[in-house]
Amino acid sequence: MSEETITEILPPIRHWPALDLSGVDFDPVLTELMREGPLTRIQLPHGEGWAWLVTRYDDVRTVAGDPRFGREAVPDQPVTRFAPHCAPRRRAVPFLDPPDHTRLRGAVAAAFTARGVERVREESRRMLDELVDELLQDGPPADLTAAVLSPFANAVICALMGVPAADRHTLHTWTELIPSSSHGTKAGERARDEMGAYFADLIGLREGGTGEDVTSLLGAAVGRGEVTLEEAVGLAILLQTGAEASANNSGQMFYLLLTRPDLAERLRAEPEIRPRAVAELLRYIPHRNAVGLARIALEDVGVGGVRIRAGDAIYVSYLAANRDPDVFPYPETIDFSRGPDPHVSFGAGPHACPAGTLVQMQAELLVEALLGRVPGLRPAVPAEQVPFRKGTSVRGPQALPVTW
Question: What does the alpha-carbon distance between residue 296 and residue 95 come to, in Å, rounded to a whole number?
Fold first, then answer.
């Protein structure tokens, strides 16, 4: 981009409050920001100052993958942010840049490949069948979140991590506390510390091992001196707490399918379209509140016709990118024939979520099991009475009452 095409005019700063949204309603503030321009300036409820917001698909991918925008500088300045429990930690995995970030993720990359995910598919299917067996045995009504979606997400990530079955309930409790502010910041910090101590012990026991699960891979990497134990524990916590986001994604997906029975019936009737349909649902679902983690411009960079100055904070919105009409025609429409579907629900660039293949597999298994084995599955309360989580960065139903 030439200097002549770059504007120096700063747009106004828009305050973006922490909204607790229900259902799959798209954030009205984000809708306005998308209309105002490809780049706007925002102020979030916590931290200080303002930050750039990027909403257009191509710009989002550019910023997410450009090494001139880094995460390591974020803890050094009071960046405006969505929630108090999102305060950056120096040397925490999400705030590492390459090459350290690349080195650390490389230690566990094998577990998240198609082959690595396939390794836990049959165990995941078996655990899901057991949960559905219990659901049917107990009979309606039921809370689908508590009975199936949340324990399934936790069990799958525990299997991939190599967490023994006897410890999975404890990990589930910690996982629910860490990303939420509804129980208080101290409760989340205590849960993080306890989970960290647990993984330090587990990874230490597996140093020198040859297992294919995440903690074995981390133990082997620590044993070879490729990563420190502190780095390994931080990554283990990050990956384990991803189960909460996965459960919430599944909750929104089934809320959508059960309140749009035409979509559910099509998936029952046409099982061959399920992988493509799941990808489209992942694109459409607003999986988080506001934005995730900031980056800092390390030098002056032109983005979308705007000059981002060195030191400026910048956020990308993957939700907005997934609704870019230049990439997804009629983005407000759920189109199971859409293809290709290059959604960025798992992020982009070096910090993209490594568990995308795993989440896709989980969703496909849930659609197969619940729509196949519980054909009369439907909401037990009106859609507007389904309670959604409050005070969290990830969106999803607190409970999903169903009957059949």
Answer: 11
